[in-house]
Automatic annotation (TrEMBL), chains A, B:
SUPFAM superfamilies (UniProt xref): Winged helix' DNA-binding domain
Origin: domain of life: Bacteria
Gene3D superfamilies hit by this protein: Winged helix-like DNA-binding domain superfamily/Winged helix DNA-binding domain
Pfam families according to UniProt: HxlR
Protein name: Transcriptional regulator
A GO term for molecular function: DNA binding
InterPro entries reported in the protein's UniProt record: HTH_HxlR, WH-like_DNA-bd_sf, WH_DNA-bd_sf
DNA-binding found in the keyword field: yes
Length: 108, 108
């Protein structure tokens, strides 16, 4: 396995994924497809509107999430996974498998 | 994919993995095998001794890491992944693959 030197791509990916709520959000977007802010708040139980907005901006800046704006009345804003973002699916699936296997440990 | 209800096994696994330094630590233990505290501090660049001790205790309490004590002179304490902990390898590998693919995005 690769060494993790501070700032290397692996370190940056780990830091990006290990931020609070990040994987929960990626999970909701991966399962739900393009989703509105309000719906994301419902899907990610416990996240505040302010934190959700900050997280979405940070993920957008990292090229992982896109934000689309439709000038309907009222305007429609949805968030979704970019092509880069969709590559996180593999990590989400491996975490899902792990969660199923860890259930006894996780519930003790 | 599973829904993530607060407190469900998937939520607990995500929270466990998304704590700061956690995946870095699991990475070092997975690559290095049973390792002493001082060596772990060297392998996980930037972590403080205090945070490392707290993290190891929390991972030990979750059944992911074991702590072995040898009454040598001086005494020898090493930390390693339990059987449950070794199951995290699959997640680490998928993150490694992702990091290699995300390099352009991660470095922008």
């Amino acid at each position: 396995m690769l060494e993790i030197a501070k700032g290397c791509p692996l370190d940056r990916t780990l830091r990006l994924l290990s931020g609070e709520w990040t994987v929960h959000l990626l999970w909701a977007l991966s399962s739900n497809g393009p989703t509105r802010h309000g719906e994301l708040r419902r899907l990610v139980e416990g996240i505040s509107s302010k934190v959700l907005t900050q997280k979405l901006r940070a993920l957008e800046a990292s090229g992982i999430v896109f934000r689309s704006y439709e000038a309907t009345v009222p305007p429609k804003v949805t968030y979704g996974l970019t092509e880069q973002g969709q590559k996180v699916d593999r990590v989400l699936r491996s975490i899902e498998e792990l969660a199923v296997e860890w259930q006894p440990a996780a519930s003790s």
